[in-house]
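Subject: sequence -> structure tokens, single chain

Hey, anyone have a minute? Need the predicted structure for the following. Not urgent.
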Amino acid sequence: MNSNNIFLLLIIFLSFSSCKDEAKEQKVIHSPIVSKDGINIRIPDPQSANFFTTETAGTQLISADLIAPAQIVATSINNNMVVFSNPELTSNYSELLNHRSAIAQKQAIVKQKEAVIKQKEAIIRQKQIEIDRFLDLARHGSATGKDVADARTDKLLAESEKSIAQSEKASAEADLIAEKSLIIEHTSILKSAGFNPDKLINNPAKDAWIIADISENQINKIKTGAQCTVKFTSYPNETFTGTISGIADVMDNISRMTKVRIIVNNNTNKLRAGMFATVSFEVSEGDFINIDKNSVITVQGKSYVFIKKSPSNFERREIITGQQIGDRIVIFDGIENNEQVVNNGSMQLKGLSFGY
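Reply:
Had a minute. Here:
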């Protein structure tokens, strides 16, 4: 082999060695650099660093749909006529109406007897005046004993009639007290089932009453008068609008659920007592920093995110999380407004930060 060929081979060898060294150096330069026990991560390669996308953290009002199972428990047919899905409630409501009617009758009797008593008292006063006048006339010979006796008889009759009216009034008042005590029992049963008895009785519209069970920790997020969305199993392609008409005064001691009463217009007569439904309440969770759920990683029971500090530098940050609302997670501590939180690539940074 001549000297020219040897020189050419040497150049090729050196060139190849140089390329390997450059590739090795390039690889070292572009490798992630982890420091401070995994808290800081540097990605020197700009193209690799761009893989990790972020969102700007900020405080904002967030809301979510609170979904609750429900059932039509009653429908109104016309004034005072209500059909319940529960036969016991139907019986209870009928008894309630009967007692209300009896109370109205007893109250009318009491008023009537009060009027009779006042009338008889007026007659008694008048007869006493007549007795005194006839006695005075009799002393002067202008009236007979019969006139005095007749006036006294009329007064005694009025007193007797007054006594009877007082007795009848007392009896009616006793019955009234008894009826009121009975109506309290039926009212309590209806209230425990989530109904407002007065609104049932005094509602002229054709409505359907729906009862939804809401957990104790969610009940403070819904308000009477707010609207909600209702979907019925019987009509899967239709959406109805309901109005929260009341929240029960009692809570189930075992399930820790409270009954919420919802009214839906039933002018179309589609809705029947006993139908199942799903109710969606839009509730506000308040003003909080919240981030994408994919941003949060969990290691040994602790939650972390990665904050982008510069185009190539990332910082692991421990956070305190709140409730997850849809795809968002409320952050109570660990993130400040306007910080850049990694929402794509968190799992890769987790592997670099914790070594797996």
